[in-house]
Amino acid sequence: MEWEASDRCNLAGCENDRPSPRALEAIQRPTSPMLTDHWDPQDSVLRSTLGRQHGVPADQVFLTSGAMGAIRYSFEVFGNQSDRIGLLSPDWPGFRFFAERSRRQVTWLEHHDFPFHFTIDEVAKFVNDNGVDFTVVSNPSAVTGKLWSREDIDALLQECPRTMFVIDEADAIYPTLSVSSLVNHHDNVLVLGSFSKFYGLSGLRIGYLICPAQYSWAFENTIDVIELTSLAIVAAREALCDTEYQQQTQREVAGNLERLTTAAATSNYQLVPGSQCFAAYLYGGEHVPDPLIVLADKGIDLVPAKWFGLPRGGRLNLRNPGSIDRLISALDVAS
Ligand SMILES: Cc1ncc(COP(=O)(O)O)c(C=O)c1O
Prior knowledge:
Elements: E1 9-10, H1 21-26, H2 32-36, H3 44-54, E2 61-64, H4 66-77, E3 84-89, H5 94-101, E4 105-110, H6 120-129, E5 134-138, H7 150-159, E6 164-168, E7 189-194, E8 207-210, H8 216-220, H9 230-241, H10 243-265, E9 270-271, E10 279-283, H11 291-297, E11 300-301, E12 303-304, E13 314-317, H12 321-334
Helix pairs in contact: 3-9, 6-7, 10-12
The structure holds pyridoxal-5'-phosphate (PLP).
């Protein structure tokens, strides 16, 4: 059956498709200075609110144009000076772009079998055995939604003291599980965050980077002095304080994950267990038709496996209850 573009169910994005009502309200009536002035992109209100939330001093928090900007600055300050960069596969495909652009040697740790999860011991061994001095990893995984705990990351930083780790928390939806405060105890870690996903502001391009105290000067001198727009700052201040909106997002995502897990258990397919964000990965072994293709025929789009270097299946976004209902109905018919 042919689907009109508007009939298709897009589960391929990984953003929050609902904005915070408070953020939306705050940008309804822009004042003249919001449009005409350059704003201080390192807004002190936002930095101190993020600092309080993550248990770090405000001057170790830097605002950037999305997590993407934070990744770029991490490479500018550390990655481009490294001898060897280490990346995981599968992981967020954007890291490859920055690593290759740095013209450094890139070494890969691959895990292409279901459930595509790396243990902390595997990562530590990879980094130490290969002399990796800079690595960036998503946590939660932008592919499967799985999350290493604070204890896991703490152990990794201790086991690999000569490696700079960038922990990209862009996909996180549980701020209390952030590992950011490890910058108070280790000097080999940067933690990145985004307002695109959990806080629903992907169109405004705002994120942040949290660093150990001794590197604040380096980021102060590297981040663009006109990095952000007024609208992004005003909306982010509100979204960050909109706890009702945040809790509703967390409740709906947890409910969607539970319903989808139950449905997948009686289908031909497997869901990577334990997602802790919007991202989840649906897989089918070689003995069943690829769920990516079966679902595309039913008008449901996932991020294709090949984006992550994987052979089958695809990533889906757990945010929207209506879209997950449609996926569950399609799985019923497909099994
Ligand atoms: C792991 C990861 N890092 C960075 C980004 C980019 O996020 P932002 O929109 O904040 O630049 C994404 C978004 O897809 C992501 O999943």
